[in-house]
Design goal:
Strand content of chain B: 15-25%
Oligomer: heterodimer
CATH architecture of the largest domain in chain B: 3-Layer(aba) Sandwich
Strand content of chain A: under 5%
Helix content of chain A: over 70%
Radius of gyration of chain B: 23 Å
Radius of gyration of chain A: 21 Å
Strand order of the largest sheet of chain B: 6-7-8-3-9-10
Order of helices and strands of chain A: HHHHHHEHEEHHHHEHHHH
Strand order of the largest sheet of chain A: 1-4
Chain lengths: 331, 307
């Protein structure tokens, strides 16, 4: 068993581009669910609209990535309006139903053969990353002792963590303000807020748009991370992983998604590496009679699920959550 | 306080003790309000006026439609037909939050405190017209810091008055039922309402706290606000209300000062049933039974037809 390689691989993932993607998506969900109480199960849809906007503008029409980012933001807002206008006046469940359905509709449509000329069908799109990599100031391998990243990954990470920091700053600034107080009040009791003369519908819409825009950033990062974009990355489990990240860190905490993303990706890759090492070689730690290496590759999800259950039982408020809030939750 | 008492009586001098009586200076006027839930007509109010500057009680047996009527007046529910206005402005199709902004603020029968916010945050959330509640300005504290300080001061003085100042940093969810009622009332006052509508302010409040709540409601009137409240506690109704409106089965059946209303035969009938104190003769009893039997058979027949 090579513990140092497990540690090195896990740290590489915990701080790597994938963790950043989920962190940004979870920051958006934190605004939706953590602060406003909106159940958005279609964060993958917001990510997909934004990511494909940026990429297809560059590949199909040859326009700049920056313009693609702007178009991505604009279309994300349009998507939020389309989803929000009919559902935000209704009970919270309706938004959940509509968003999960919308995310799937978007994914199926974009991957459809009919649009494969524009969106590349199941294969997705590549060949847009040039301008982004041209401005990469790094070269070679960046080594931090325990682990190392390639120059391209490290450039994505630099941009990504700066974005995460800016997003956290924005969320912090918004949530300490009276505006944030209205959102939290809506989470607690909509009717009470209405009775105090606040336009609940407008606030929920603003929250849906802002959280969606954070999701859009996650969508851009998906494309930049792998230098390609395809429908397979935007399945519904992306949204649920992002929720997991949020709940591990602690909902309605500014740094909850950041801590959650790092821990989630550390654990998932540590478990993955552990089981693959434990079942490989001529004399494996876990004999083949118990588990083959193929079966072992799925064990990380089993253990992650177990860990989540334990977390929900013993620390349902998440790692950064406040114990006092729990006593009150039994209303 | 004889002077004050006469002042209140003045407000209702010459007003008829009849359902739908015209008031001298009504703040709320409602006409022809009907609200149906399927086949059930929950509220059917022909005409009602609420006098400005007075405490009006809305009473009635369970299921009389008091809370539904409250919801209709405040925009939390829409009537099937009818007109109603506040200070002369029609409230038809006005959403609940605008009604509140116009100065007509309500509380709820089941208190709605914001559990995971502190008592102080609950109060600050009540303040109206905060520029920090606009998305763009929210990011920059210099737009709203001074307002926040002023609101905090106002909240502190209200909490002081409602005996909640020691709890200001506790989560609102940790308060007792009675304290939540107080907090909800105090929070409603943060908006500086002209008309305060209290839905069962005394439900679940212990007797000691009740006395101080009564005082608070009276002080609202003395500040020049109008109060309309729904209540089952007759002692409270008798003690503080200047005018009483009685609802039963969705209609207003009686109006008047507390003493005259409580002696009204229609009110006694509504609460206790028309026959509560008349002994039935054998023939009358037979007649009622026969009528009930006929009704049952009729509905059975109808059901069979439907099948």
């Amino acid at each position: 068993m090579d513990w140092s390689s497990i540690l090195s691989g896990s740290v590489q993932q915990a701080l790597g581009p994938t963790a950043i993607v989920y962190c940004l998506a979870a920051i958006g969900l934190n605004v939706h669910f953590g602060y406003t109480g909106l159940l958005n199960f279609g964060q993958a849809g917001f990510m997909m609209v934004a990511g494909y906007s940026m990429v297809s503008l560059a590949t199909v029409w040859g326009l700049s990535l920056w313009l693609g980012v702007l178009v991505g933001f604009a279309l994300t807002i349009v998507l939020a309006l389309i989803l929000g206008v009919p559902t935000l006046r209704l009970r919270a469940d309706y938004l959940a139903i509509v968003t999960i359905a919308a995310a799937e509709i978007i994914r199926q449509s974009i991957s459809a053969a009919k649009f494969s000329d524009t969106f590349g069908g199941q294969d997705g799109l590549t060949d847009f990353i040039g301008p982004f990599r041209e401005v990469n100031p790094f070269s070679g391998t960046i080594d931090i002792g325990i682990t190392s990243w390639g120059a391209n990954d490290f450039w994505v990470m630099t941009v990504g963590w700066v974005l995460v920091a800016v997003c956290c700053l924005i969320v912090w600034a918004l949530m300490r303000s009276p505006w944030g107080r209205v959102l939290k009040s809506i989470r607690e009791d909509e009717d009470a807020v209405r009775s105090l003369g606040k336009n609940v519908y407008a606030y929920k819409m603003q929250s849906l748009i802002i959280g969606g825009l954070f999701g859009a950033l996650a969508g851009f990062m998906v494309a930049l991370r792998s230098a390609s974009i395809g429908p397979s990355f935007f399945a519904t489990d992306v949204t649920f992983f992002a929720y997991t990240v949020l709940l591990i860190g602690g909902a309605a905490r500014v740094l909850g998604p950041v801590l959650g993303a790092v821990i989630f990706w550390f654990l998932i890759s540590a478990l993955g590496l552990f089981f693959s090492q434990a079942t490989s070689g001529s004399d494996p730690l876990i004999p083949e009679a118990i588990m083959t290496s193929q079966q072992a590759s799925l064990m990380r999800f089993v253990f992650l699920g177990l860990g989540l259950m334990l977390l929900m039982i013993f620390r349902p408020q998440g790692i950064l959550g406040d114990r006092r809030e729990l006593a009150i939750d039994a209303r | 306080m004889p002077a004050e008492t006469t002042a209140r009586a003045d407000l209702f001098e010459g007003v008829q003790h009849e359902p739908g009586a015209k008031k001298k200076d009504p703040i709320v006027v409602a006409t022809g309000i009907k609200r149906r839930f399927g086949g059930l007509t929950a509220v059917d109010v022909e005409h009602v006026e609420i006098q400005r500057g007075a405490i009006t009680a809305l009473i009635g047996p369970n299921g009389a439609g008091k809370t539904t009527f409250f919801n209709l007046l405040t925009g939390f529910d829409r009537p099937n037909e009818g007109d109603w206005s506040f200070n002369g402005d029609s409230l038809d199709k006005v959403p609940a939050y605008r009604v509140a902004r116009m100065g007509m603020v309500r509380t709820f029968q089941l208190t709605k405190v914001l559990s995971l916010l502190t008592v102080m945050e609950n109060m600050r959330a009540g303040a109206a017209g905060q520029s920090g509640e606009k998305l763009v300005k929210a990011m920059f504290p210099f737009f709203w810091r001074s307002e926040e300080v002023a609101n905090t001061r106002k909240a502190e003085s209200l909490l002081e008055r409602f005996l909640l100042i020691k709890k200001k940093d506790d989560f609102a969810g940790s308060l007792s039922g009675g304290q939540r009622k107080l907090l909800e009332m105090a929070r409603a006052l943060m908006t500086d309402p002209e008309l305060v509508m209290l839905d069962e302010p005394m439900a679940g409040v212990n007797p000691a706290l009740k006395q101080s709540l009564l005082g608070h409601v009276k002080s609202l009137r003395d500040e020049g606000r109008t109060v309309l409240f729904v209540e089952h506690d007759m002692d409270m109704v008798r003690d503080i209300s200047d005018w009483v409106i009685v609802m039963a089965q969705g209609r207003i059946i009686s109006e008047g000062p507390p003493d005259s209303v409580m002696g009204d035969q229609r009110v006694i009938d509504a609460y206790l049933g028309a026959h509560h104190d008349t002994a039935l003769s054998f023939e009358e009893e037979e007649e009622i039974l026969a009528a009930a039997q006929a009704e049952l058979e009729e509905s059975d027949a109808k059901e069979n037809d439907d099948v």
